[in-house]
Amino acid sequence: LDLEIAMKRQCKAQGMKGDTNMYNIFVVDSLVEDDVWVIDLFDKIKYGTIIGGNLGTALRSLLGFGIRDVAVIRPCVDVFDPHVLRSSMGAFFKMRVAVFENFEEYREKYEQRTFYPFMLDGAITLPEAVARKQEPYSLIFGNEAAGLPPAFAKIGQSVFIPQSREIDSLNLGVSVSIGAYAFTNGGKSNG
Predict the structure, then answer these.
(1) pLDDT at 191
(2) pLDDT value at 187 more than 60
(3) How far is it, in rounded angstroms, from Cα 27 to Cα 24?
(4) Could you tell me the pLDDT band of residue 45, with boundaries at 50, 70 and 90?
(5) How far apart are the first and last CA of the chain?
(6) Burial letters for 47-64: b for 16+ Cβ neighbours within 10 Å, e otherwise?
(7) Alpha-carbon distance 60 to 66, whole Å?
């Protein structure tokens, strides 16, 4: 409470405007063009999916491309989190979602699969990976903030989605959608 009072006083003294019940809005209100705002989640979930909405969106896209089997590796958001369920728009309930304690557990169970980890520094482009794909396969994605750990570059065939230099990365749900579409349709349109 003392910190809250001190922050509100400091913000008021600096002329910052905002809802007095939401003192963190003062930070947003003070941003000007070209400012950078960094939010640290304090390694709450280092390599797992942090944002439930992104996982739900990914599930919805996967089902849309005919993929019903999904593995989620801990640490991750709870697959029953309301954000996951809502953003999946019901897709979650039509899928087989398994949660594994770690990637090694998943890898042991599905060792016959070809692994395609999606990484910003992947060895080949998505179109190249699709042209060479070997079934059965697993598409592997990291979280929104950190991606996959560097060690995944040595697991299977690492892949990157070509993108402009205007952005540093794609949202998880978008990446999953692009990768799933390419792998299930060979990059060709159905219509």
Answers:
(1) 43
(2) no
(3) 6
(4) very low
(5) 59
(6) bbbbbbbbbbbbbbbbbe
(7) 10
